Amino acid sequence: MSKPRSASLFHFTGSINFLKNILKNGLFPRYCQEDHEWFGIEEKVAYPMCCFCDIPLSRINEHTSFYGAYGIGFTKDWGLKNKLNPVIYCSDNGLVPRISGYLLHGSGTETDEQKKDRELNFWRLLKLVKPLSGSMVVGGKVISKDFYQESEWRFTPEENISDTILFESEYKETIEEHNKAMENYKLEFLPSDVKYIFVKQDSDIPEIVDFINNNLGQYPLNDLKILSSRIISLDTVAFDL
Question: 85, 154 in Cβ contact below 8 A?
């Protein structure tokens, strides 16, 4: 019987070049637009984040077919050390929307300072909350998605949330500037933090091995050998399932 959750945290991307950049430079938070229509907020809101999942390998192909066939699997110890957090999935009429509603509207008897603190905590919570299912924009098209099946974890920078929220009306004009600022919050890792390096097909493996040997010389040779041994193609994973 397969495990309901993996012991690793996976991050996937759609390009082998993006994978190389992660191996060399780490992971940078990027702004992602979230649809909070389920909560009554009509305008989309973007937050900086790095997204991961801990779905079991038996379900990895359904995930990579959507998000991309190149990725890295990190230890959960690494994720917890870097303050990654599982997403909170909520139903429409559950407790989480009610708590969020209180944080948004308050009691009406607070000071200006208390109101500001409450509103900031509302956005801190909401960036880690998703409905069980909903819609998302991919390639300019709106699609329906069962979010609960994604077992998502997120890294979100902890600086003042009011400085990092981007509403839909300002997103296009300022997204590049805000993404650039996120370079100060990159996630770094050591070869020992990596459990898997995923590529699309077997023919990609030599390219990644060469990249590791030629670009990660700051690590001991034995570490590079172990890192190269973590490479696996999704073709192989699919064949063995």
Answer: yes
Q: Provide the whole-model pTM.
A: 0.89
Helix (H) or strand (E) holding 152: strand 152-155
CA distance 93 to 96: 8
* Residues 161/120, Cβ–Cβ less than 8 Å: yes
Is residue 184 a contact partner of residue 164, using CB atoms and an 8 Å limit?
no
Residue spans of the domains in the chain: they are: 8-240
Residue 153, classed as helix, strand or coil, is: strand
| Residue located via tokens 């300022």 | 174
Characterize the bridge pairing of strands 88-90 and 129-131.
Answer: parallel
E strand residue ranges, 60-160: 70-75, 85-86, 88-90, 129-131, 134-138, 141-145, 152-155
Predicted local confidence at residue 157, as pLDDT: 87
